[in-house]
Amino acid sequence: MSRGVGDFRDVLLRKMFAEHSGTENAVLLCNVRAIEENIRIINIKLAKISKKNHSDCIEKLITEVSPK
C-alpha cells in the first residue's frame, strides 16, 4: 500500500520536531506551510496550462516559481 503525501508530511514533521528546539520547529513549520502553499499555486497554474495546452506557458511558469 502506497503512502500519501499527507503521510509523508506527518512523518517529516515528527522527525523535524524530534530533532529541533521549539523556536526551530516554529520556523520549520512555517517553511513547510510556505512550501505547501507554493505547491498549491503551482498545481493551479499547471491546471490552467493544461487547459490552454501551450508549451511556452511551461517555461514561463518555471521562470515564475524559480527562486530569485
Structure commentary:
By secondary structure, the chain is mostly helical. It has one domain. It contains three helices and no strands. The longest helix is centred in the middle third of the chain and has 31 residues, at 22-52. The protein starts with a helix and ends with a helix.
- Cα radius of gyration in angstroms: 16 Å
Tally of contiguous helical segments: 3
* Strand/helix succession: HHH
| Whole-number tally of structural domains | 1
List the SSEs and their pairings.
Layout lengths: L4 H15 L2 H31 L2 H11 L3
Helix pairs in contact: 2-3
Summarize the structure.
The chain is built from three helices and no strands.
Comma- or semicolon-separated keywords:
68 residues, mainly alpha, 3 helices, 84% helix, elongated
